[in-house]
């Protein structure tokens, strides 16, 4: 009924006390005044992210189910009205899911929950853009080989096409579409295939197949999009055009959606040709809400009087940020950021600093948030902390409000980070993973010291401080001011403007005050003078590229660009081998990534030289060409780069800015996605490659590649035997 329900996570041992049983109880309740819960779409609340295993184990965050705000969580382009006849009313599209024996043997009873999550996340997009609600009419899970159809058995060399052909030829209960989910495959390469423009086809072509892996919902949304008539969105380049039908992360302008420019006409034509003509499987939703009577005309509303400027937030003002949970953003002494407490104490106090100087803060202004620790709130990847005192790009936030003009105390705001994502409070966690501008991203800005209306007595002017002499100041060779004191990675702090903590071959260097002056945030020092600016901290990249959506059954040829030349030296260098040993030590000790604990793993990873060549080449390519991405500038993916060296890979991590093996391992260990890649016990083979360029923005670039299935390793790049221990070369 639009009300908010809070569900507190409970220990798994409390049998029957999880979310699913609570919803089942609510649905079956016949007590007076009980609210009927017809369906709950978890992804609507979590920014299209699913709660994995929410019926088992521990859920690491509260779930705030605010149905009335769901429509605000999607920023895509709706195609209705005007796409197909009657599209002002929601239409229900009935679909059948089939899970093969391989998926059952791997996932067991969890399959149904996984498929329901796939459906709900996909339906969210289709509902918003097409006003089409996907409904699971039937589900078949093959649990035994006895009498199993051909599409449910085995994983032959061409299993995607063979399973689709077998599914197409099989006799299935008729639905508007039928999709098979298989446990075969690794989640990379071709992860789905489907027929194009075949909704409601009675000869079995209204079908598709999807690997049931980590990002299955996006694969399914893409393959069902083929059934809906959508072709690939490659018009502006593969991975560059955007939208669900491109090979990428499925987003366009920050929202999961079909590309309106290239896909709307063909998809709307397909839908229009079958809606209400699909044997009752694609019709108007029979649960449309009752129309709301038109309200009586409201009396005229006087024009509001603007709040006095004294109520507006000013540069340098101390504030608190209250989240939707009622808790306030808090900075711990160790500079971690959370929202566990509702205090208005010193740990919650933030000072607003306008990038463009003094005055009132207005919507659209860029600000820094200075904390009581002296650090500024920083977005690094998706993580939020206050470990650095810089005033750099990673510390900048754009203030967004419901209306333009000055931002006032007590007003709701959103804070957009340099990544385009917004600060979000999820339970007690503060992060910046989603583009949403909804309830979980909203903050009420509370002023600590509201000013009185009268003009305050001016403070006495302090005696001027003498300017530093030139000998106290340093500049780069380009004449840009150096920071007086700065810290690079895990190295000791440089307190004399210019240092060389990482033994850079170019000599002493410094972080600069204005990155635009230098063209980057550091430079080599001259013998001149001047104080210093703000470094851009070491970036933490996304954990892994999204699985590449699959082609349609008709094969499409792809030209493979020529790979770069093999790395010079053809031998792993000392810091790469050190990093390999450190990772094996970490896995042997065990540890946790986010809320997941990994037991000590006595089996070390095996270093493979083919993976190393792919990693090394990519790291050096990023350094030489000045970019930072899992995708090479010629369009190659991590998996293509590995295959060029004669091997396959299952995960890639990249990082930049750290020059030492331990520092970059720590950087990855503190990022959930990267940490999971490294600690996953299914990984058996590994390599890390390091690249360097003095002229690149971050200078130091690292790439890890990890592989699940062990094969005979290539050891041709190993350092001299004397440098190895018995444990390092063993293949237990």
Multimerization status: single chain
Percent of residues in helical segments?
10-25%
The first-level CATH class of the largest domain is given as: Alpha Beta
Tally of domains: 4
Overall average residue pLDDT: 76
Protein model, in words:
The structure is a single chain. The protein is an alpha+beta fold and 732 residues long. It folds into 4 domains: 65-284, Collagenase (Catalytic Domain) (3-Layer(aba) Sandwich); 317-447, Trefoil (Acidic Fibroblast Growth Factor, subunit A); 474-525, Plasminogen Kringle 4, CATH 2.40.20; 574-707, CAP (Pathogenesis-related Protein p14a), CATH 3.40.33. Helix content is 20%, strand content 20%. It contains 14 helices and 30 strands. The strands form 10 sheets. Strands 3, 4, 5, 6, 7 and 10 form a 6-stranded mixed β-sheet that branches. Strands 11-14-15-18-19-22 form a 6-stranded antiparallel β-barrel. The chain has a 4-stranded mixed β-sheet with strand order 27-29-30-28. The longest helix has 21 residues, at 110-130. Mean pLDDT is 76; it is low at 8-17, 29-72, 287-310, 450-471, 528-566 and 721-732.
């Amino acid at each position: 009924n639009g009300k908010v329900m809070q569900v507190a996570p409970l220990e798994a041992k409390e049998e029957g006390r999880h979310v699913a049983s609570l919803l089942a109880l609510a649905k079956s309740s016949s007590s007076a005044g009980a609210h009927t819960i017809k369906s709950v779409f978890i992804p609507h609340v979590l920014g299209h992210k699913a709660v994995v295993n929410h019926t088992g184990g521990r859920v690491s965050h509260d779930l705030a189910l605010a149905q009335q705000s769901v429509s605000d969580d999607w920023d895509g382009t709706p195609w209705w009205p005007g796409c197909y006849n009657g599209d002002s009313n929601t239409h229900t599209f009935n679909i059948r899911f089939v899970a093969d024996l391989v998926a059952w043997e791997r996932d067991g009873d969890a399959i149904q929950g996984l498929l329901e999550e796939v459906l709900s996340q996909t339906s969210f997009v289709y509902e918003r853009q097409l006003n089409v609600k996907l409904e699971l009419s039937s589900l078949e899970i093959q649990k035994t080989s006895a009498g199993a159809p051909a599409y449910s058995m085995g994983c032959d060399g061409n299993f995607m096409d063979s399973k689709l052909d077998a599914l197409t030829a099989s006799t299935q209960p008729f639905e508007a579409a039928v999709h098979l989910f298989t446990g075969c495959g690794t989640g990379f390469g071709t992860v789905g295939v489907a027929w194009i423009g075949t909704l409601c086809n009675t000869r079995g072509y209204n079908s598709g197949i999807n690997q049931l892996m980590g990002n299955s919902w996006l694969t399914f949304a893409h393959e069902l999009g083929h059934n809906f008539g959508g072709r690939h969105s490659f018009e502006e380049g593969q991975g560059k055009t955007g939208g669900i039908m491109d090979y990428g992360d499925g987003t366009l302008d920050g929202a999961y959606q079909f590309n309106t420019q290239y896909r709307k006409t063909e998809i709307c034509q397909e839908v229009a040709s079958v809606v209400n003509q699909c044997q009752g499987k694609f019709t108007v939703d029979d649960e449309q809400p009752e129309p709301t009577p038109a309200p009586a005309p409201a009396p005229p509303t006087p024009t509001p009087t603007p709040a006095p400027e004294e109520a507006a937030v000013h540069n340098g003002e101390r504030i608190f940020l209250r989240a939707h949970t009622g808790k306030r953003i808090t900075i711990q002494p160790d500079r971690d950021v959370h929202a566990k407490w509702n205090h208005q104490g010193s740990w919650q106090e933030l000072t607003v600093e306008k990038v463009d100087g003094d005055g009132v803060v207005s919507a659209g202004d860029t600000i820094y948030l200075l904390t009581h620790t002296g650090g500024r709130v920083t977005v690094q990847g998706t993580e939020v902390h206050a470990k650095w005192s810089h005033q750099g790009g990673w510390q900048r936030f754009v203030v967004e409000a419901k209306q333009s003009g000055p931002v006032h105390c007590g007003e709701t705001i959103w804070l957009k980070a340099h990544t385009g994502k917004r600060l979000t409070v999820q339970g007690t966690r503060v992060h910046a993973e989603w583009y949403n501008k909804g309830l979980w991203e909203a903050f009420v800005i509370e002023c600590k010291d509201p000013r009185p209306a009268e003009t305050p007595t001016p403070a006495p002017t302090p005696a001027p401080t003498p300017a530093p002499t030139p000998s106290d100041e340093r500049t780069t060779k380009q004449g840009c001011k150096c920071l007086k004191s700065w810290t690079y990675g895990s190295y000791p702090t440089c307190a004399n403007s210019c240092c060389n903590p990482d033994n850079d071959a170019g000599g002493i260097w410094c972080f600069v005050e204005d990155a635009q002056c230098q063209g980057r945030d550091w430079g080599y020092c001259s013998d001149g003078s001047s104080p210093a600016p703000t470094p851009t901290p070491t970036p933490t990249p996304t954990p892994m590229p999204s699985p590449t959506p699959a082609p349609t059954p008709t094969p499409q040829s792809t030209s493979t660009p020529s790979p770069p030349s093999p790395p010079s030296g053809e031998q792993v260098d000392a810091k790469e081998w050190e990093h390999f040993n450190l990772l094996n030590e970490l896995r042997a000790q065990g540890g946790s990534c986010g809320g997941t604990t990994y037991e000590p793993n006595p089996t070390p990873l095996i270093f493979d030289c083919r993976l190393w060549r792919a990693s090394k080449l990519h790291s050096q390519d990023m350094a030489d060409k000045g970019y930072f991405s899992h995708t090479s500038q010629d369009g190659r993916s991590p998996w293509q780069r590995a295959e060029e060296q004669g091997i396959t890979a299952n995960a890639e991590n990249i990082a930049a800015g750290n020059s030492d093996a331990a520092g970059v391992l720590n950087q990855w260990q503190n990022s959930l996605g990267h940490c999971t890649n490294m600690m996953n016990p299914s990984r058996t083979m590994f390599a890390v490659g390091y690249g360097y360029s003095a002229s690149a923005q971050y200078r130091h670039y690292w790439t890890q590649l990890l592989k699940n299935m062990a094969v005979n390793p290539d050891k041709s790049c190993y350092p001299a035997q004397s440098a190895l221990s018995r444990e390092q070369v063993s293949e237990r």
